[in-house]
């Protein structure tokens, strides 16, 4: 073995920070920490973006998504602001095209006699925003159902390819000297005198002064090795991808805008693909796509854009979103073990929240407090209270 190889190997075995998880959250953290000049090793049990990140639609919709608290909404908005410049920076480092679609999101409305009042209120409220009346909506999206009376336009909501974003973070981190080890399953955390010292894996021991657990639904099993339990659970989501290349009604053209409604979203992707999602099945814990789930998605999508019925089927898949009992992620230091940090439970917005999670972890590891950053309610230490059955602060 040459000297150089020995150096690299020992660096991998002993780093300043170990990041557990090769999804979009772990990868963003590895990228941000490596930009701070820290020696980072990232461990992934399967391969990059294998979990929720690789199955997501990739929406960056801080204005439209529901968040469990104002603090979480503000955090998501911060992430949305970071994302534009970050993607440019990642492109320079990684040369990966993340398929950013910045055309904006459209929320169409159908006039419904039963909900007439609600509809007029929406229009009133929307007048100061971007309200498209029926003719503007038909001009912009000629294929949308003629029943749509108008739409709200959200130009600041964007979307991208989540697996590509994950790869770009990893490649960017590697350029900064980070190591990425795949097929590396963490079996337990190593502690010494109340401090974390590393992890034991199927590929041997990795040591570090700081360990960040960002393994989504896989995080629980790792924490159990030190007698701690997370209150996360899966929320299954089914999706389907279609090709618009052959549609006659739409002259083989695809949608430019993402269509976002309360019951379905239609997300245009490169190569004239559209991704339609998603069902929401709490505690669904498998990757099967049911006929009824698929039927629901297609029925809803063709209700909004009838031409979609002519599209050809490409594939369907399901993902498991990591949700927490109070709907807030666990972010920050776990106070019972020095050097141990969590970044888990981003539910359906991991892609959007990846940038701010990376930034937050960089600030925490540089010595800022949760209060200073404004993320107190995400405190990882609340699992200690949850364990005792106390569900508030
Ligand atoms: N990010 C949207 C969803 O999980 O359905």
Write up what this structure looks like.
The structure is a single chain. The protein has 393 residues and is an alpha+beta fold. 32% of the residues lie in helices and 27% in strands. It contains eleven helices and 19 strands. It has helices spanning 3-13, 24-35, 70-94, 116-126, 134-140, 162-175, 219-224, 291-304, 350-365, 370-373, 382-387, and strands at 14-20, 40-43, 59-60, 105-110, 131-133, 148-154, 158-159, 179-181, 186-192, 195-201, 204-213, 232-243, 258-260, 265-269, 273-277, 281-282, 312-324, 330-333, 340-344. A hairpin with a 2-residue loop joins strand 9 (186-192) and strand 10 (195-201). The structure holds glycine. Glycine (GLY) binds at residues 56-57, 59, 237, 277-278, 321, 348. The chain crosses the membrane at residues 16-33.
Q: What secondary-structure arrangement, pairings included, does this model have?
A:
Elements: H1 3-13, E1 14-20, H2 24-35, E2 40-43, E3 59-60, H3 70-94, E4 105-110, H4 116-126, E5 131-133, H5 134-140, E6 148-154, E7 158-159, H6 162-175, E8 179-181, E9 186-192, E10 195-201, E11 204-213, H7 219-224, E12 232-243, E13 258-260, E14 265-269, E15 273-277, E16 281-282, H8 291-304, E17 312-324, E18 330-333, E19 340-344, H9 350-365, H10 370-373, H11 382-387
Parallel strand pairs: 1-2, 1-11, 2-8, 4-13, 11-19
Antiparallel strand pairs: 3-7, 4-6, 5-6, 9-10, 10-11, 12-15, 12-16, 12-17, 13-14, 14-15, 18-19
Helix pairs in contact: 2-6, 2-9, 3-6, 3-9
This protein binds glycine.
EC number: 1.4.3.19
Transmembrane segments: 16-33
Keywords: Membrane, Oxidoreductase, Thiamine biosynthesis, Transmembrane, Transmembrane helix
């Amino acid at each position: 073995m040459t000297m150089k190889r020995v150096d690299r190997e020992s660096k991998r075995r002993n780093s300043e920070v170990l990041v557990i998880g090769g999804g979009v959250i772990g990868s963003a953290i590895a990228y941000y920490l490596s930009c701070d000049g820290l020696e980072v090793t990232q461990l992934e049990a399967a391969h990059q973006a294998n979990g929720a990140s690789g199955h997501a639609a990739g929406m960056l919709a801080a204005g439209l998504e529901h968040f469990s608290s104002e603090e979480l909404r503000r955090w998501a908005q911060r992430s949305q602001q970071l994302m534009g410049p970050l993607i440019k920076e990642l492109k320079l480092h990684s040369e990966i095209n993340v398929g950013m679609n910045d055309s904006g999101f459209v929320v169409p409305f159908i006039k419904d006699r039963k909900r007439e009042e609600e509809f007029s209120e929406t229009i009133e409220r929307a007048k100061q925003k971007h309200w498209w009346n029926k003719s503007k909506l038909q001009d912009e999206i000629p294929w949308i159902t003629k029943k749509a009376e108008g739409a709200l336009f959200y130009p600041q909501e964007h979307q991208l390819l989540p697996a590509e974003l994950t790869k770009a973070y990893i490649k960017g981190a590697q350029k900064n000297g980070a190591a990425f080890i795949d097929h590396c399953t963490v079996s337990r955390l190593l502690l010494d005198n109340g401090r974390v010292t590393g992890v034991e894996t199927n590929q041997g021991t990795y040591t570090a002064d700081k360990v960040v657990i960002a393994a989504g639904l896989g995080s629980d099993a790792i924490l159990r090795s030190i007698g701690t339990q997370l209150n996360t659970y899966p929320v299954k989501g089914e999706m389907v991808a279609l090709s618009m290349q052959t549609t006659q009604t739409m002259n083989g053209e695809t949608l430019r805008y993402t269509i976002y409604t309360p019951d379905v979203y239609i997300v245009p992707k490169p190569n004239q693909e559209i991704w339609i999602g998603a069902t929401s099945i709490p505690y669904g814990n498998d990757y099967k796509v049911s006929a009824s789930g698929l039927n629901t998605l297609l029925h809803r999508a063709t209700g909004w854009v009838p031409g979609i019925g002519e599209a050809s089927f490409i594939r369907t898949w399901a993902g498991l979103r990591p949700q927490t009992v109070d709907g807030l992620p666990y972010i920050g230091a776990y106070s019972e073990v020095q050097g141990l940090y969590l970044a888990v439970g981003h539910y359906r917005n991991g892609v959007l929240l990846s940038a701010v999670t990376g930034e937050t972890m960089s600030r925490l590891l540089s010595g800022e407090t949760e209060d200073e950053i404004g993320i107190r309610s995400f405190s990882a230490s609340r699992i200690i209270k949850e364990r005792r059955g106390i569900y508030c602060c």
